User: Which sequence fits this backbone?
């Protein structure tokens, strides 16, 4: 990152969900054309019920899209991601947080 530039991700989990999509593509389990079509549909669905902020909402759409794909392929069951996120939040509850509430992994 160059001095004065904004970080690419606002929260560590944003980077993780991005990396998971990239890893799925590199392992030939996810094509970018399918991914972009599915992510666009998710964003469209999300935007029907509320105004999207382009940050957290965007990565929540990534997460929802990945979960849907993994469920359809039988690789996970619906709700496993939420359970894993809750367990991570509980495990990191004692760690210092930044001003936005993100865990600081230093």
Assistant:
């Amino acid at each position: 990152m160059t001095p004065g530039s904004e970080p690419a991700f606002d929260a560590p989990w944003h980077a993780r969900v991005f990396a998971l999509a990239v890893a799925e593509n590199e392992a030939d389990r996810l094509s970018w054309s399918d991914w972009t079509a599915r992510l666009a549909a998710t964003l469209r669905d999300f935007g029907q019920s509320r105004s999207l902020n382009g940050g957290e909402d965007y990565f929540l759409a990534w997460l929802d899209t990945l979960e849907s794909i993994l469920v359809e392929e039988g690789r996970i069951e619906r709700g496993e991601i939420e359970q894993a996120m809750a367990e991570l939040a509980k495990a990191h509850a004692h760690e210092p947080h930044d001003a936005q509430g993100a865990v600081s992994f230093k």
Q: What stands out?
A: The mean pLDDT is 81.
